[in-house]
Design a protein that fits this description.
622 residues; two-stranded antiparallel ribbon; 37 helices; 72% helix
């Protein structure tokens, strides 16, 4: 007969393997020795069945346990949630003869796992009505689900009233991270300052809080203080610090952080190395990103996503697609971030590949995910397939602000100004979202392309008052271009002159082109001078003045400008084209000859270049 020690080892082994067969073997052994009616062994076997995913067997065993205690009910309740049997769990909770704090915590965490914060908060309120004292686990779970500051403050107040010790970092770390997510950085800092005992998680939250609030330099200072205080940074610390250096575009500090990662042995961590690849890419060192990826010799989704995103960010769509294909050949399962990055890298000549990636997204079930849908729309808008982009938009339920911005900008750039403004009006009626500077840039761009002068002026005038956004260079550029398009060049120039900061070159370009069309030499000379002050290496002012002087028969001035252009050794902008052939994309610049075919191609060109005299001489010679 098996001993209790043997049965315990068998159950423990079954729990580790999560194998239904082993679970049934353990159950059989318990029946043979007559221990299945024992509540302790029944609970253990019940837990074993739920771990292995055999929910039907678990429910049958639960009904067969003669004496069920609270632990039996809690094990069954947790098992149903873990196996995604939500309705069964709700029914079981209602049938429980006695509920302790573990039962209520299981319900709260179960709703959290199903993404239902409202039901979790409602369960917490019911828990308080039944005078069940919350535990640290209760507050920590609730803090991860809070979506508004008011609820966060209520949970914070409950933590204080419950007498949770300030020496317990678990709950206070959760509250600190909650306020950081909600954007209330002052509250997060106050929680940190009130804590008696802090750990690495507390300091990680502080670093991330400083970074999210825009104080990235202060975040790096906190990392320095953390090390001086003797705290040992972990993988999360280093991934955050490297990401901060990436956001600052500070290659020097980024290298120092990576050097420290190597010294402490953290670079082998996928998250840290992925952040390092992204940092090199954002600092315009893509070759170092590729080199690091090859040195790591790892093919997992995080690293592949980082390098695919790096290729996409630098405009190397073909390389991003090749890496994506290689990763799948290495059996790396693409996730929604991989699909989104690959789609964002697609250009006009890669439309066939984009359609294939779209099909893969549908097959994997990612097409309804908001970031993937946004990238799909972006790809179709770039290739001019507006109707395909609108179909994607119609099938997407959850739309974030980035989604709306992509839709507004895509319609505007494809000369669908009326539809772009209609989408903007829909966004204004959305309760949870507010337009940002990108949204307003897209709307002004739509007004510009549609020549909607009244709407454009109205929206531009209301940017600060109605939306609380200070107009930036891109907003001024849109309204100046709109005024230039409708012939109001004087008003456009006045706006540029009265800007509270230095206008960008794009603003002066619009006025310069408008002065060329009107033949206004005096204005063109003044604008060209302003452009050269900000961008002395630009050839555009010289070229426009040359064209204008030639139009007005002022040849001496034209020659003088040409001489100045040659003296500055400025390279004029050249046209370029892209051509997709099978799996490759070829890039051609103006005055560039690329021959694929060798001797036969040149021989054919020589035959075609023969003139009639050469042909007659050849015929006479024959």
């Amino acid at each position: 007969m098996p001993s209790s020690f043997y049965l315990s080892r068998l159950v423990d082994r079954s729990l580790l393997s999560k194998c239904p067969t082993l679970a049934r073997i353990a159950h059989t052994q318990l029946v043979k020795v007559g221990l299945i009616d024992n509540t302790f062994w029944g609970n253990r076997c019940l837990q074993l069945y739920f771990k292995s995913g055999s929910v039907i067997d678990a429910l049958q065993l639960f009904e067969a346990i003669p004496v069920k205690n609270t632990i039996s009910w809690n094990v069954c309740l947790k098992g149903l949630f873990n196996n995604e049997y939500l309705n069964h769990a709700l029914y079981l909770f209602e049938e429980m003869p006695e509920r302790d704090v573990v039962s209520w915590n299981t319900m709260i965490s179960g709703f959290a796992s199903f993404g239902s914060p409202r039901n979790a908060m409602r369960t917490f309120l019911d828990m308080q009505r039944y005078v069940i004292r919350p535990t640290e686990f209760t507050f920590s779970t609730l803090a991860t689900m809070v979506t508004c500051v008011r609820h966060g403050e209520q949970i914070h107040g409950n933590v204080i009233c419950s007498g949770v010790s300030l020496s317990n970092p678990v709950v206070w770390n959760s509250l600190m991270d909650m306020y950081r997510r909600l954007g209330v950085f002052d509250y997060a800092l106050s929680v940190f300052l009130t804590m008696d005992d802090r750990d690495v998680i507390s300091l990680n939250s502080l670093i991330l809080c400083c970074s999210d609030s825009g104080n990235k330099e202060m975040a790096l200072d906190q990392f320095r203080v953390m090390r001086e205080m003797g705290y040992q940074p972990d993988e999360y610390t280093f991934s955050t610090v490297v990401s901060i250096c990436s956001g600052l575009r500070d290659l020097c500090k980024g290298k120092q952080a990576i050097g420290l990662c190597i010294k402490m042995g953290f670079l082998s961590n996928t998250v840290v190395s992925g952040a390092a690849i992204d940092m090199f890419s954002k600092c315009n060192r893509l070759e170092d990103s590729v080199k690091l990826f090859r040195q790591l010799e790892k093919w997992d989704s995080v690293l592949c996503n980082s390098l695919v995103a790096s290729y996409s960010w630098h405009g190397f769509g073909e390389e991003a697609l090749k890496l994506f294909i290689l990763a799948m050949r290495q059996r790396v399962q693409p996730d929604k971030f991989t699909i989104s990055s690959v789609l964002s890298s697609m250009n006009v000549v890669m439309l066939d590949h984009g359609a294939q990636v779209h099909s893969l997204a549908v097959k994997l079930g990612f097409d309804l995910d908001t970031p993937v849908a946004t990238s799909l729309m972006e790809m179709y808008f770039k290739t001019g397939l507006v109707e395909s982009a609108m179909q994607v938009s119609a099938t997407t339920d959850e739309k974030d602000l980035f989604f709306w911005n992509t839709l507004i900008l895509g319609l505007a750039r494809n000369n669908r100004a009326d539809e772009s403004l209609a989408v903007f009006r829909q966004l204004l009626m959305h309760r949870g979202l507010k337009p940002d500077k990108v949204t307003l840039t897209g709307v002004l761009l739509a007004c510009c392309y549609g020549n909607f002068i009244d709407e454009g002026i109205q929206i531009f005038s209301s940017i600060e008052k109605a939306h609380g956004i200070d107009p930036e260079n891109e907003h001024y550029a849109c309204i100046v271009e709109l005024l230039c398009r409708v012939g109001m060049i004087t008003e456009a120039n006045d706006i540029a002159e009265k800007m509270p900061f230095e206008p960008s070159s794009h603003i002066w370009e619009s006025i310069l082109y408008a002065s060329l069309e009107l033949g206004d030499t005096r204005l063109a000379e003044r604008v060209a001078e302003r452009m050269l002050e900000s961008e002395p290496k630009s050839s555009l002012p010289y070229l426009v003045l040359i064209k204008l002087y030639e139009m007005t028969w002022r040849w001496e001035n034209s020659v003088r400008i040409r001489y100045a252009l040659d003296k500055q050794k400025l390279k004029c902008a050249q046209g370029s084209s892209k051509l997709g052939i099978k799996c490759s994309v070829y890039f051609f610049e103006a005055n560039q000859l690329q021959i694929h075919g060798g001797h036969d191609t040149w021989a054919t060109l020589e035959l075609l270049s023969w003139d009639s005299d050469d042909q007659k001489s050849a015929e006479h010679f024959v």
